[in-house]
Write a structure and sequence with these properties.
heterodimer; A: 266 residues; 11 helices; B: 263 residues; alpha/beta; Rossmann fold; 6-stranded mixed sheet; 40% helix
């Protein structure tokens, strides 16, 4: 892996964001809208009910912010690839001395930058508007964050592989893929709420489930579950390997079928 | 028959075949490109030029046959080869939302160019487009855009340059400038260039040798002048039209010889 090449590819995206402030707005606009809606809704319910609601607010807002880590990481990979397609630059990149691993590493880097910007803005807003401090999760935030980011990268590679195979017609997958798994990874509710019960096994086979379950445990008991963390890390390694293999396989197939140039110049 | 070329072979295709759904887009295509040589790849639409170029760039995998650059097998040493090569096409563009210098800086860093800013300034000056340095790439005219693409292609002082229709959609004045620059860069650096074009003036002015493709096969090969003489055509354009329309092998000298031999 050549870090000069990776940094050059990231630099291209930095130039893009600096030159197009509207792209920064896109990074922040939807998460802020979601935060406002969820925040006001939970506050309204809290004012009109009694019991355990303050904790539920914490769950929901924490889950919302952490879900955005997956989504932004996935978008970082898929949109970075699509940027090259939209600007007809893909061929220039693929005929330059850029390894697939370097190309992917750069998209991961862009994903990380996107997450940092989004999470920073959301955390500040959640603290100011709802007195929810995401850093209340303490040092446990970092392993949660890292695991979700890796899950997002894996989903990003799968989205990109599908776009490579089916061309621009499959572009909407860049936005849709994370939502295929959202109902199953127990973002806003525990795994036990997923029905029928056999779906809970599917849920437990997905790495983000263990992160969201772990987050709820930290917020309710203050205890960090090393078991859930271990499951998340292990499953993420498997998911990254599977996603990387799918991407490499699709890339080879597009080269074999001669689809890459058609796709890149259409 | 001309004597074998003793110059270093930079790029070589050996019996390169590429099939799409049972149809051969390239059929046992073989050639050698030597250091300091400009080789033109000609043929009508669908003749196999683009497939050949894509295989040479590693964008499309051949069905069979071998590809070698600098004596190395392309598929096994892709990155090593691409570091010493570059490419420009009328059908690709640099990201339109970045400034010209930003695009060139990104590619200069990818190719590991030393003193990239100095190199970029040199190239912009050579192309007579220094004034475009801070312009948005997507707002350039076709001629300006082509010259910026060529700056990108010359960034790493490539030993192997692949130019796909570099003068397409350019006015005669700019096309003439582009041809002169390509020729100058080639002379100064002694690099090998593979050049495709539908503009016969380009080929006559720039190329040392030409390969005519028809249905994925080489039907003629030689210097532009030799080809015109052998095919008894009035010009290279005549030869092109004959091959494109009826696909006949218009090597009249070879046909005559074959006839004499059969008698």
């Amino acid at each position: 892996m050549n870090f000069r090449v990776v940094s050059a590819l990231i630099l291209r995206h930095l130039f893009l964001y600096i030159r197009s402030p509207m792209r920064l707005v896109e990074l922040i606009f939807w998460p802020v809208v979601e935060l406002l809606i969820w925040g006001y809704l939970t506050m309204f319910i809290q004012e009109n009910t009694t019991g355990d609601f303050p904790r539920i607010i914490t769950y929901l807002l924490g889950a919302m912010i952490l879900w955005d880590v997956i989504f932004r990481a996935q978008q970082g990979v898929a949109i970075s690839f699509l940027e090259d397609v939209w600007t007809r630059n893909l061929l220039n990149v693929f005929v330059a001395p850029v390894r697939t691993s370097e190309f992917l590493a750069a998209t991961f880097g862009v994903g990380l930058l996107r997450i940092l910007i989004t999470v920073a803005v959301l955390s500040m807003m959640a603290l100011a508007l709802y007195s929810f401090n995401v850093f209340k999760l303490g040092w446990t935030l970092l392993p949660f964050f890292m695991n979700l980011m890796v899950s997002g990268w894996a989903l990003g590679m799968i989205s990109t592989a599908l776009i490579l195979r089916w061309g621009q017609a499959a572009e909407s997958l860049a936005w849709a893929v994370p939502f295929f798994i959202q109902p199953l990874v127990a973002v806003f509710y525990p795994v036990s709420a997923i029905k029928p019960e056999w779906l809970q096994s599917v849920s437990l086979a997905l790495p983000p489930t263990h992160v969201f379950e772990g987050m709820r445990e930290v917020l309710s008991t203050g205890v960090f579950s090393w078991e859930k963390f271990g499951w998340a890390v292990g499953l993420n390694i498997v998911f990254m390997a599977i996603a990387g293999s799918i991407f490499a396989w699709m890339l080879t197939m597009t080269r074999k079928r001669g689809l890459l140039t058609k796709f890149a110049t259409q | 028959m001309s004597a074998p070329d003793s110059r270093e072979v930079i790029l070589e295709a050996r019996a390169l075949t590429r099939e799409f759904d049972g149809v051969k887009a390239l059929d046992a295509f073989s050639f050698k490109l030597h250091r300091g040589e400009v080789l033109g790849l000609l043929g009508a639409n669908g003749a196999g030029k683009t497939t050949a170029m894509n295989c040479l760039l590693g964008l499309t995998l051949p069905s069979s046959g071998g590809l070698y650059a600098f004596g190395l097998e392309l598929q096994k040493h892709r990155i090593e080869i691409l570091r010493r090569a570059n490419f420009s096409s009328a059908y690709t563009s640099l990201p339109g939302n970045l400034l010209v210098w930003q695009n060139l800086l990104v590619f200069a860093r990818i190719y590991g160019v030393r003193e990239p800013r100095k190199r970029i300034d040199e190239l912009l000056e050579m192309m007579e487009i220094s004034h475009l340095r801070k312009r948005v790439t997507g707002q350039l005219s076709a001629g300006e855009s082509t010259r910026v693409n060529l700056c990108k292609a010359f960034l790493n002082k490539p030993e192997l340059l692949m130019l796909d229709e570099p003068t397409a959609s350019l006015d005669p004045d700019i096309a003439d400038k582009v041809r002169k620059v390509v020729r100058r860069v080639q002379r100064d650096s002694n690099c090998a260039i593979l050049y495709t074009s539908h503009n016969m003036k380009d080929i006559e002015e720039v190329c040392d040798r030409v390969i005519f493709l028809h249905k994925g096969k080489i039907v003629m090969e030689g210097t532009p002048m030799e080809i015109v003489e052998r095919s008894e055509g009035a010009s290279l354009e005549d030869v092109f039209i004959k091959i494109a329309r009826d696909g006949e092998i218009v090597d009249a000298a070879a046909a005559k010889l074959a006839k004499e031999e059969s008698v």
